[in-house]
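Meet today's protein:

…
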Amino acid sequence: MSNVLNDGYYEVLWPRAQRQVKQTSLAPRMGTLDGKTIAQFWDFVFRGDQVFLAIEEGIRARFPNVRFVNWCEFGNMHGSDERARLAALPQQLKKMGIDAAISAVAA
């Protein structure tokens, strides 16, 4: 018979590493979309031009005073100048008074 010193207890290692990303709180929700300005960003895939019309119609049915800044104002955000366009986007949205955005409508 072998001499067992662990009394049935074994040392184990947890297989997961420590969290690398700190959790943060979500931004507060807007109380309503009424009177707000919503930007539309399309990735030029699927039928975003048609889908955005349906989305606008549905939102306007509930919030008649909402305003939309159409995806045409922003164009295709992807391409050779993507980094520069995305870096400039926060300032552009602020200047335009954008309250919310709908992004990348596709299948």
In short: Residues 37 and 67 are 5 Å apart (CA to CA). The first helix runs from residue 48 to 62. The helical segments are 48-62, 82-96.
